[in-house]
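TA notes, week 10

Several of you asked for a full example with nothing omitted. So below is the full record: structure tokens for the whole chain, then the designed sequence directly under it. When grading your own attempts, check the secondary structure regions first.
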């Protein structure tokens, strides 16, 4: 466990340093924030004064060294757009994105995993074909298209749900379903494939011969073995949920971190972008660490290997 902690700590440092450095240089070749602040009609003297005030008139390497020093104390400066601390803005928007991501993951896992198992067990029947059809459809439709379709049906035509905003639980339903759709469809297909592989193994035939019930074999033995590769998939997909939330939050005007990042790209708000990438990077590494720990709970063989090292 100590070795695993050291590895993850080193990984965290390297990931944050690499991501932060990459974003630092990319945003500086994306455009001039002085133009975004002052407007397209600003005169050269005004633009030069803004650059000097923001410290953007110095050589890039000097800015980078100063950025690394500020990164050590988690000081990303003030937002160019909102005139307040960038990290405080990111942390203020983070809970809304976390709520959306968690609900979307619960929807994806709660529907995708059982549907995948049922699709494998009834692969030659109508249920199996329906699961395959839904999985293909879910992976084929982009998030922003699905979001607009759901708005047209449930918000405009039926009037059941709000189409945008972050007020109350009802505003969360459409963006969460939109964000969960693609991952849910992929989980259906992968769980179905893993389950079909497990059904062909000898322990299933042995359990059948011993008279174990189908439900016990399916949900106690097969699903437990399927959950090992699925944990890895869920860990990776949480990162994709964060990336997908950028589009979904923009479509539904959800007041989360993803929407803040889109607004910051448009405004060339360097501090907010750098603070947002930092928070996302830390979160992804922590998720991977938690997944590693859960591996040992689900599959004791991994814990035994770790002990013997």
């Amino acid at each position: 466990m100590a070795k695993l902690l050291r590895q993850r700590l080193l990984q965290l440092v390297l990931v944050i340093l690499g991501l932060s450095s990459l974003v630092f240089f990319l945003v500086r070749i994306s455009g001039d924030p002085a133009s975004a602040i002052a407007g397209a009609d600003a005169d050269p003297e005004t633009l030069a004064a803004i650059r000097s005030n923001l410290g953007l008139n110095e050589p890039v390497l000097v800015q980078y060294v100063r950025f690394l020093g500020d990164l050590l104390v988690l000081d990303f400066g003030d937002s160019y757009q909102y005139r307040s601390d960038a990290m405080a803005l990111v942390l203020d928007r983070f809970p809304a994105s976390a709520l959306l991501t968690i609900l979307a993951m619960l929807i994806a896992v709660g529907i995708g995993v059982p549907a995948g198992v049922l699709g494998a067990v009834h692969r030659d029947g109508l249920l199996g074909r329906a699961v395959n059809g839904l999985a293909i459809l879910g992976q084929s439709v982009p998030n922003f298209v699905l979001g607009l379709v759901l708005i047209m049906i449930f918000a405009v035509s039926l009037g059941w749900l709000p189409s945008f905003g972050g007020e109350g639980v009802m505003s969360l339903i459409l963006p969460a379903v939109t964000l969960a759709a693609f991952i849910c469809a992929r989980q259906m297909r992968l769980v179905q494939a893993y389950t079909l592989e497990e059904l062909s193994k000898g322990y299933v035939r042995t359990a059948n011969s011993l008279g174990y019930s189908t439900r016990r074999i399916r949900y106690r033995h097969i699903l437990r073995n399927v959950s090992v590769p699925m944990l890895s998939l869920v860990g990776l997909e949480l990162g994709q949920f964060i990336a997908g939330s950028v589009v979904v939050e923009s479509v539904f005007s959800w007041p989360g971190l993803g929407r803040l990042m889109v607004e910051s790209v448009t405004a060339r708000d360097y501090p907010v972008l750098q603070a947002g990438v930092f928070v996302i990077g830390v979160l992804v590494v922590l998720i991977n660490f938690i997944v590693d720990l859960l591996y040992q709970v689900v599959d004791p063989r991994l814990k035994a290997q770790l002990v013997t090292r």
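The chain has a mean pLDDT of 79. Use that as a sanity check on your answer.
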